[in-house]
Amino acid sequence: MSILNVNEITPVGGASTITVNAANILASSSDLTLGKLNVSDIASGISTISTTDLVVNGNNYPTTGALSNRRININGAMQVAQRGTVVNAGNEYGGPDRMRFGKNDGAFTISQDTDVPSGSGFTKSYKVDVTSVAGTSGNYYTFLQQRFEGQDLQVLKKGTSSAESFTLQFWIKSTIPGTYVVEIYDNDNNRSISQSYTINSANTWEHKILTFLGDTTGALDSDNDTSFEINYWLFAGTGYSSGTLNTSWNTQNNANRAVGQVNAADNTANNIYFTGVQLEIGEKSTPFEHRSYGEELALCQRYFYKFRLANQEMIYNESSTANQKWHQFYIGHPMRANPAVDVTDLTTGGSIGGLTGVINGLTPQTPGDTPGRISSRVTMSSNGGTARNMYHYDGWNGDYVSLSAEL
């Protein structure tokens, strides 16, 4: 039996047709040619054939890297939305996890939506609803942003002579057609590269594929801090668009970041949707790598973790002498960094004379601890006497505790 290896990867499956450089070649052909090699070459002992443009059943075959876990970004299908809808969003996370909204004027509502490309396999999208028109000049901006830890991007080999190109694909639907810009920013070295694309029709889902060359300058830090940002521009004032679009890696210059970007925030009737976002190593876009909801949720919870429980006691007074009480609760895995803790609608119980700081001290363990543990301290105005519930939260009425270790 003869085995055809492409880029040192042995394909498995029953397909009988392989497409290379748009030429259909039957596996049983006596005149099979890939690149500069043919069947007689293979028969004479050559076992590996390399090609940079292999298409199998209409799909691009990877030109580098692994076949699984190709999607570097998290929640690309917009499945997980722990925070829910955010009205009048500022520079913050909201709607589907891991997508950060950025603006310095106007008003927007961001949310998870069910408007998706027909037949795409996606069920959720990220929606931006313009509710108040933004300014149209100067340093005004509106964009979506994804942030990445440096330790997750070492596969790009950035800053070396072997720097890898990478490809970004996504689906987008916008009320405003025209030229849009995607910017890649290297936060460790203040370098960036931008690329424009066109939305051809209003209110129509369109699939976009952008490939960015590898950067041989500026290695990325291998740590848990922000190294890369992807900015999907929706509006750029003159402060970000008055120069020449930066289509090759250079030190970031604000005037060159989003030249030509249309104003998708110029009317309160405007809506923009995103889904199917995939960042992968290599010069080809491969089919979107779907992951289960459970996998995506666990990955998202490294950055944001939300507890919503019913009638759950958080602190219980077990002493009649001390006026400071502690409680610890655990999360299933360590977060990226020590999280900020937010408590909403917490209610007090029992006959305690009063709380002088509901959560007065927060002492998360270090990110490497397994499992992660959060300690909270409540200080009472008096010791409270006999044992009783100090406070609780009621998930049925909207109470929750959230932990944020976002980039």
Determine the strand fraction and express it as a percent band: 35-45%
Poorly predicted segments: 14-43, 347-370, 379-395
- What's the end-to-end separation, in Å? 51 Å
Strand tally is 29
Main β-sheet description: 7 strands, antiparallel
Number of domains: 3
Question: What would CATH call the homologous superfamily of the largest domain?
Answer: Galactose-binding domain-like
CATH topology descriptor of the largest domain: Jelly Rolls
What is the approximate shape? Answer: globular
CATH architecture of the largest domain: Sandwich
Q: How confident overall, as mean pLDDT?
A: 79
Spatial strand arrangement across the major sheet: 9-10-13-18-15-16-19
Instruction: Using the coordinates above, name the CATH class of the largest domain.
Output: Mainly Beta
